[in-house]
TrEMBL record:
It comes from the Bacteria. This is Sporulation initiation inhibitor protein Soj family protein. Residues 3-172 form the AAA domain. Signal peptide: none annotated. CDD domains: ParAB_family.
């Protein structure tokens, strides 16, 4: 049975795309079939996972959402991981969906329902904003992972994201589980204190025990070289392996 996970925070710079890509990477290394859907017009997941020199010949998620093309996925630099890529045109697509007389909230589901059974996991890299793209992601998701970097802005983004997830779940009668993932964690007392505060404010069982440590250099190097961070013998790579192992125990 396919499990669909959206990675979402309405604040940028919290490790959303890094988490999407590495979650998929680790699952693929365990021989699960994984699809990454890049639902962010910035297309960072797309850039990290495939090399698109010329857009001709590719099917992008914006065309699928507008019903112009059937979903076609492409192999990535990681084993067992495919992607439905994004591009800047997706920003215009969101506006087109809003003015369309057709149903707006289930475009993504209609576009991918024919290929969902091909995958064990679908990871959706959402835009850092609540819009109709995000609504479409939530409507196909079993779970939402909210990455949080410990700073004041990220905390506000988390609170707003969580409130909107709960509102959307109620509005569309969705049964979505949310999980909080602390990213870019340091060993400072401030981080420890804030993590404890946020954990206490969350529903029971909704905080992921594994923390992703702050190691910018290996993440940046892996991003630019399109290489696997989990094979680079780095602490942050091990963190993502531990994250997947923890999640698999629950799933």
């Amino acid at each position: 049975m396919t499990r669909t996970i959206s990675i979402l925070n309405q604040k940028g710079g919290v490790g959303k795309t890094t988490t999407s890509v590495n979650l998929a990477n680790v699952l693929g290394s365990k021989d699960y079939k994984v699809l990454v859907i890049d639902l962010d017009p910035q297309a960072n997941s797309t850039d990290m996972l495939i090399n698109i020199v010329d857009e001709e010949g590719y099917t992008f998620v914006d065309s699928v959402l507008e019903g112009k093309e059937e979903a076609i996925t492409y192999p990535t630099v990681f084993a067992n991981v495919n992607i439905l890529p994004s591009r800047l045109d997706l920003a215009t697509t969101e506006k087109n969906i809003l003015i369309s007389p057709k149903a707006q909230h289930n475009r993504l589901y209609k576009g991918i329902k024919g290929i969902m059974k091909q995958y064990d996991f679908i990871i959706i890299d959402c835009p850092p904003i609540l819009n109709m793209l995000t609504v479409n992601a939530l409507n196909v998701s079993d779970e939402v992972i909210i990455p949080i970097k410990i700073d004041k802005a990220a905390e506000k983004g988390f609170e707003m994201t969580l409130r909107n997830i709960k509102d959307m779940s109620e509005s569309y009668d969705l049964d979505i589980v949310y999980k909080v993932l602390f990213t870019m964690v340091t060993r400072t007392n401030v981080d420890k204190m804030k993590i404890e505060e946020i954990t206490n404010a969350c529903d029971a069982g909704c905080v992921i025990h594994t923390h992703i440590r702050n190691q910018a250099k290996p993440i940046k190097e892996a991003t630019y070289s399109q290489k696997s961070i989990i094979n680079a013998k780095t602490g942050v790579g091990n963190d993502y392996v531990d994250l997947v192992n923890e999640l698999l125990e629950e799933w």
